[in-house]
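hey team, just a heads up i'm posting the complex here instead of the shared drive bc the drive is being weird again. everything in one block, sequence lines first with there labels, then the predicted structure for the whole assembly after. its two chains so it's a bit long, scroll down
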Amino acid sequence: MQEKVNLAERLASFDEAFKPKIVGELNDYKLVVVKARGEFVWHSHPDTDDFFLVLSGRLTIQLRDREVELGPGELFVVPRGVEHCPRADEEAEVLLIEPLGTPNTGDAGGAMTAAEERI
Amino acid sequence: MQEKVNLAERLASFDEAFKPKIVGELNDYKLVVVKARGEFVWHSHPDTDDFFLVLSGRLTIQLRDREVELGPGELFVVPRGVEHCPRADEEAEVLLIEPLGTPNTGDAGGAMTAAEERI
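-- predicted structure starts here --
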């Protein structure tokens, strides 16, 4: 059985931006923490929605037609297939939930694609 | 498209204990906020894990062989089929994530079973 997860402690254990770390699982979903600094990459996930919950800092989810600004305790679900690009002008700490195997860069690929890593 | 969800604002909109409120969806999962006060009911979910993230207060997840104590920013996933009984000696505010259609009382049923309600 998985143990409890203290999100702040897990986030304190690394410093890299946009390197998602799996901290747990819910059925076939991964529970992921990530630090966002700067702009990620435009992408979409054709087969899944994408869950963002800001734990600290501020995260802007850029959509093609608007921006969604999230602070601590605010969540947003990007629907499957919708292009988005997260941006954090200062650092944001975020909980992501997606199906296991979902690439962080979705359909875009490229240099920011990260392997699934557990901490 | 769903809008962003400010969890504290949603939780401030009701006061009943153990009445889960759906605030969003992630694929076929429901994103639920609940206030816990006192002891819930022993139950298990034979077909799904059960995600708990404490937002405020303290929640004890009683298992048959131990207790898991959660404070703000701490999460725990109860595996499918594992009996558990949440208890909050003072009020706890919690984010739950489960597949849509999952009854809050799992296989136990009874008076604390709540309809799926959106706010």
